[in-house]
Amino acid sequence: MGGGGRAGHQCTPGPCLLPDTPDFLVLSNDRKFGTQFACIVAGSRIEVLRTPVRAPRANAVCERFLGSIRRECLDHHLVLHERQLYRVLRAYCAYFNMARPHQGIRQAIPATTGLAKTPHAAVPIVSVPVLGDLHHDYRRAA
Questions:
Q1: Backbone angles phi, psi at 112, to 5 degrees
Q2: From CA 135, how far away is CA 92, in angstroms rounded?
Q3: Given a cut of 60, is residue 83 above it in pLDDT?
Q4: For the whole model, what pTM was predicted?
Q5: pLDDT tens digits along 26-79
Q6: Residue 37, number of CB atoms within 10 A of its CB
């Protein structure tokens, strides 16, 4: 088992098999992943971004987002297979970026931060369930 740290280790890089391949992978300078992981990433067209040395808060935003995913989404779902996980995470990310207010940008929604606010007449607000009623998005009725 393992063998990731052996000298002379060979691997054949191949294409990444994910449905939507990410553009970037943020990694710390920890060597725990080994050379096999490095070979896989090298052959996948994913750009590796390493966090700065001796900068413990460098990936705090990433850690906070992953914590939000776990607390607000995955702790409430029983995921049985990879396709289901992909579908749940995709729905949560859409909710996170298009409906959920963020404290860091004064309770604004990231996808609408640059848009001008227009006054609405007496249009009722409706609740749209997200992730099987786990969360709700509130919108003005059409």
A1: -120, 15
A2: 9
A3: yes
A4: 0.53
A5: 777 777 777 888 788 877 888 888 888 777 777 777 788 888 899 988 998 899
A6: 15
Contact (Cβ atoms closer than 8 angstroms) between residue 5 and residue 34: yes
Token couple for 69: 């995913």
Q: Distance between CA atoms of 39 and 141, rounded to whole angstroms?
A: 51
> How far is residue 49's CA from residue 27's CA, in Å, rounded to a whole number?
6
- Supply the pLDDT for residue 61: 74
Helix axes 82-98, 60-72, angle to 10 degrees: 110
The residues with which 50 forms a beta bridge, in sequence order, are 27
Structure tokens at 123: 């249009």
Gap between the terminal Cα atoms of the chain: 58
- Give yes or no for a contact between 120 and 142, defined as CB atoms under 8 angstroms apart: no
CA 60 to chain centre: 13
Q: Where are the alpha helices (DSSP H) in the chain?
A: 34-42, 60-72, 82-98
